[in-house]
Amino acid sequence: MHIAIQPLLETDIDNTDIVIQAAYGSSSRKTTLYYYLHLQPDGAFVAKKADAVVGFGGFLDYHDFAYIGMMSVAPGEQRQGIGQRLLEAILNCLEERGCPTVLLDASPSGVPLYRRYGFYDDGEALVLKKSQQVKLPGSGAEPILSATEADLPELLSFDASMFGSDRARLLKTHWAENPERTLIARDEHGQISGYLLAQANVLGPWLAQNQEIAERLLLAGLALPFQDMPQVFVAAEHRDALALLTRYGFTIQRSLQHMYKGTRIARPRTTNIFGQASLGFG
Prior knowledge:
By secondary structure, this protein is of the alpha+beta class.
């Protein structure tokens, strides 16, 4: 049966979401799919078999590097080369855009495919989930505040300096949806020293200059309501982040292989990036 690789359309979202849920055994990812349509409409692809969606893959291009995510194939259609076709479409598009580096976090089953296409291992990424209720200590002297629109230029500059590229479109979209859940810490000079975005069921992005600031942000984030027990995506080698998360009741759910293709870039994944926005967006 012919497999067609096509751009994701809004009319595909419901069926694509069903495929992703089945492939990952997860809850709905419709919000993420709409993010792809809004932020990178030329970077999201579906695989169709007789007009039925059977696979998905997407990327966000941050200019200095791109992040591939949500690679998924319907369970009954796996091992037929569909994932390979989706990956080829994504890589061809990124090559046309002149993207120097491509990053992703691969499941163990996906690693062999990515290695065949020139990806190299570069550490691990862990998924942690809050599984225990732990009494939170009182807040410190320096308050954690929700970011206002006036804070955004400084926050975006702070993020770019640590993330390694400009992801203003993504962060502005998150902030516009829930400004009260974008938390910032400031130092004694009034400069932003860290921030945490508390999504509906994910803590991240979560960036800080040191562990003490990261802890204050985490405590403020955990005081907010969530749809489910929140998750965090972090480098396995980030000892400070893992110590904090363990202290406040998080446990490791699974491990993924962090990989890159093209020019290897140095980012503070094990020091200042305490939590990713997602496995697909970095």
